[in-house]
Amino acid sequence: MSEGRIVGIDYGTRRVGIAMSDPLGIFSQPVGTFDPDEAIRKLRAIGDGDGIRTIVIGWPLSEDGRETESTRRVDLYVRRIRNALGKVEVVRWDERYTSEEARDRLRGRGPVGLGRLDTAAAGIILQEFLDSRAGGAGNTTEVLR
Q1: pLDDT tens digits for 100-132?
Q2: How far apart are CA 34 and CA 123, in angstroms?
Q3: CA-CA distance, 94 to 56, in Å (whole number)?
Q4: Could you tell me if 129 and 26 are in contact, meaning their C-beta atoms sit under 8 angstroms apart?
Q5: What is the pLDDT of residues 11-31, one digit of tens each?
Q6: 3-state class of 89 per DSSP?
Q7: Are 8 and 129 in contact (CB under 8 A)?
Q8: 54 in Cβ contact with 93 (< 8 Å)
Q9: In this predicted structure, what is the pLDDT of residue 98?
Q10: In the prediction, which pLDDT does 62 show?
């Protein structure tokens, strides 16, 4: 197994939710929600500390599976991540319905602020990816090297 954590990202122009795997790459753990610049700094800190072997970023496809203006914005953010971190594997992960699932999971656990929602969505994106590796099934992904 390669060194470093697997990091999940739910990108938004105002807020970026981040989650990361445990050392074995089995479970998703919340990190927090940051503005886009702070998120880059947080990713650098994770990279400097535990290392990052893979980033799984939510890919906001339309209802019918087409790329959108949002996917283009995510692609630009991936470029910023690469500029900041250097060579790192980036996986685009279909994030349709993750915000709704996050909202459902958080319901009944206190106020569902947008920050909590973004972090929970990042956790769902990451956990789906981790589960797909363990079971071999799952989301259609595209690995960007």
Answers
A1: 555 555 455 555 555 566 888 899 899 999 999
A2: 14
A3: 10
A4: no
A5: 988 999 999 999 999 999 999
A6: strand
A7: yes
A8: no
A9: 57
A10: 79
Q: How many residues does the chain have?
A: 145
How many helices (H) and strands (E) are present in the chain, helices listed first? 4, 6
What predicted TM-score, i.e. pTM, was given to this entire model? Answer: 0.82
**Amino acid letter, 143:** V
The CATH number covering residue 86 comes to 3.30.420.140
Pair of tokens at residue 100: 């709704």
Other CB atoms within 10 Å distance of the CB of residue 138: 15
Report the distance separating Cα 125 and Cα 74, nearest Å. 14
The pLDDT tens digits of the residues spanning 63-85 come to 888 999 989 999 999 999 999 99
Q: Residue 56 is part of which domain span?
A: 5-144
Give the count of domains, the chain.
1
